[in-house]
Amino acid sequence: MPGMVLFGRRWAIASDDLVFPGFFELVVRVLWWIGILTLYLMHRGKLDCAGGALLSSYLIVLMILLAVVICTVSAIMCVSMRGTICNPGPRKSMSKLLYIRLALFFPEMVWASLGAAWVADGVQCDRTVVNGIIATVVVSWIIIAATVVSIIIVFDPLGGKMAPYSSAGPSHLDSHDSSQLLNGLKTAATSVWETRIKLLCCCIGKDDHTRVAFSSTAELFSTYFSDTDLVPSDIAAGLALLHQQQDNIRNNQEPAQVVSHAPGSSQEADLDAELENCHHYMQFAAAAYGWPLYIYRNPLTGLCRIGGDCCRSRTTDYDLVGGDQLNCHFGSILHTTGLQYRDFIHVSFHDKVYELPFIVALDHRKESVVVAVRGTMSLQDVLTDLSAESEVLDVECEVQDRLAHKGISQAARYVYRRLINDGILSQAFSIAPEYRLVIVGHSLGGGAAALLATMLRAAYPQVRCYAFSPPRGLWSKALHEYSQSFIVSLVLGKDVIPRLSVTNLEDLKRRILRVVAHCNKPKYKILLHGLWYELFGGNPNFPTELDGGDQEVLTQPLLGEQSLLTRWSPAYSFSSDSPLDSSPKYPPLYPPGRIIHLQEEGASGRFGCCSAAQYSAKWSHEAEFSKILIGPKMLTDHMPDILMRALDSLVSDRAACVSCPAQGVSGVDVA
User: Fold this and answer.
1) Which of 25, 128, 267, 385 has the smallest set of CB atoms within 10 Å of its CB?
2) Is residue 95 annotated as a catalytic residue, yes or no?
């Protein structure tokens, strides 16, 4: 529900968010009260010492104070359990209870200070009693400190501006005043987000690219979050409900309802060949991450294997640029790719905003010059990812609509300049003129590799690109279609990144608003059921007011959804099926090339760690990645080591089944 308004400002916490904190505090307070009561009853006869009367009074008053606090916290917890996310009516007394609870902190602080002073004076009483008093004082100050930290966490810097309109919204204002209000809120939100990002990234420098990235990221966040009044727990509840709703739809879906987007028989013929190429070139994409990924993949032996290289200096043997632990990086690259020192033309771990590390090597097995671009691994890379507005891609091709993700486009342009202006590719092809150019990368590196291949295609018409788990929001539909002939993307399972774009995030926000607004259960039950479902599975049918076919006929926001909006924009669509109208700065963007989708067959546990998984592969249409899927593996499926493991399993299983008769559905090769 909308954030609570206390002391004339909005806070980033709702009135139904206090069940779990209240329960935790209640348990601590009850145990504390029982402990003090036990201490007093067992040792009150030993309080006839000097200062004992003060300690006795201290314990009695503390027990009374704790009893009042326990009653208040119990009331807060019970009230917080009432109603639903968008029905705060049963919780209207919450603000008064919170004022009472906060007022009780003042006598608690006074009494904790008096207890500390009395103990510091060196009261000569029974040591057990004194130790009990010390423990009581320590616990008091820990709880007070925890409360202060909690208040800081839920403090909303924009709360003072949003409070007057959080419930009524700007609808009571005329259009001019409403527009001024919204512009003011957006400007303030952008400033707040920019300050937060600068604090988070305070150690990465202040060059021009970094300042531009700060502004772009702040504008993206302020634009995305400025039109809703959701608190973080609402988003968590919405994601839990969406996962269950998604699984419920899939379980009830008939096989005949599954729409096939298989491109055709000509593409089916080379699926095996492209999978083998992906399996081979994924080693280079992983190698570009350097020693951290290698150690992560080989936790027991990795450090021993590359330890010697870390202490060895070979900078005269190859072109090694930028970064720390360069020889460690190079040692891990050698072990990952299986190449020799002489096979590397250039290795760069120079890492700044819009400037990605990359390696250039000669791959004699495939007779190719391989350029591998590193994916996200630093705060600089995250800022590159989040510079999500679009710009026109400067390439020589017949495509008219050449919009692309600004941050990734800038990163690809940097690598392009290095390859061409520094003569790196010329050097490589002077050694192996008959080789072809192959560009690879994972995640952010996959998106940059696709853009780089497009930039280089005029000079190297035979260029090929293998993009592993690239972001969906990369470039225009026209460039997506143009890239079909020379780019192959590989996506594993429910990986969120190949489904991630500003348009898809807007769609996810709309779906969260709808499912949260119309769930007829209190938030604490949603979160408990969601946690159980994520960990252990079970029945995904968690009832809402939209069960059945009613969802599909609702085209306007219902009352619950309206309460979650801070502004009503005519561009904001509530249709369940139509795409959202996008800002000109964030048009719909698409993934690169043809897409191979690896899917796990059967069940291997909620997190894929219980048994060896088997995978199938198929050509997929980009429309299959037009919605973000919620699940335990939406993040783990993106990890390069998981993708490598899946490719190893799939390629070995397919090789073992070469002599098996063809079977399965057209467009799907079963492992």
Assistant:
1) 128
2) no
Distance CA 196, CA 586 (A): 22
pTM equals: 0.83
DSSP state of 628: P
Neighbours of 509 (CB within 10 A): 20
Q: Which of 152, 178, 211 is the last residue in one of the domains?
A: 152
Same domain as 359, residue 301: yes
| CATH number, domain containing residue 432 | 3.40.50.1820
One domain for residues 207 and 324: no
HSE, CB side, 13 Å, CA atoms: give it for residue 568. 15
DSSP letter for each residue of 25-89? HHHHHHHHHHHHHHHHHHHGGG--STTHHHHHHHHHHHHHHHHHHHHHHHHHHHHHTSSBTTB-G
| Residue 510, in any domain of the structure | yes
Whether residues 478 and 505 fall in one domain: no
Residue type, 617: A
**Chain centroid to CA 122: how far?**
53
Residue indicated by tokens 């497009």:
454
Q: Is residue 172 part of a domain?
A: no
Q: Are residues 290 and 386 in the same domain?
A: yes
Dist. CA 310–CA 114, nearest whole Å: 58
User: What is the C-alpha to C-alpha distance for residues 362 and 430, in angstroms, rounded to an integer?
Assistant: 11
Give the span between the Cα atoms of 132 and 52, in whole angstroms.
13
Are residues 523 and 16 in contact, defined by beta-carbon separation less than 8 angstroms?
yes
Q: Are 162 and 194 in contact (CB under 8 A)?
A: no
Q: How confident is the model at residue 69 (pLDDT cuts 50, 70, 90)?
A: very high
Among residues of the chain, what percentage have pLDDT more than 70? 78
Same domain, 290 and 399: yes
State whether residue 636 is helix, strand or coil.
helix
Least Cα distance to 363 among 285, 469, 418, 442 occurs for 285
Q: Grade residue 170 by pLDDT with cuts at 50, 70 and 90.
A: very low
Residue that is written with structure tokens 């306007």 in the block: 556
* Segment of 245-249, 356-360, 542-546 carrying the highest mean pLDDT: 356-360
> What's the domain count of the chain?
3
Inter-residue contact 94 to 80 (CB < 8 Å): yes
The question of whether 443 is a catalytic residue gets the answer: yes
Q: Fill in the DSSP letter of residue 243.
A: H
Same domain for 243 and 103: no
Parallel, antiparallel or unpaired: strands 464-468 and 668-669: unpaired
In angstroms, the CA 16 to CA 525 distance is: 11
Q: Say how far apart CA 573 and CA 366 lie, in whole Å.
A: 49
Looking up tokens 């009524």 gives: 168
Query: Is 266 within the bounds of a domain?
Result: no
User: Which residue of the set 229, 495, 507, 637 is catalytic?
Assistant: 495
For residues 470-488, average pLDDT: 95
Residue 79 domain boundaries: 3-152
Residue 89 domain-assigned (yes or no):
yes
Q: Which of 140, 166, 390, 443 is catalytic?
A: 443
Phi then psi for residue 169, to 5 deg, are 70, 175
Percentage, residues of the chain above pLDDT 90: 47
Q: Are residues 318 and 352 in the same domain?
A: yes
| 519 shares a domain with 392 | no
- Domain final residue pick, 88, 121, 152: 152
303: number of Cβ within 10 Å: 14
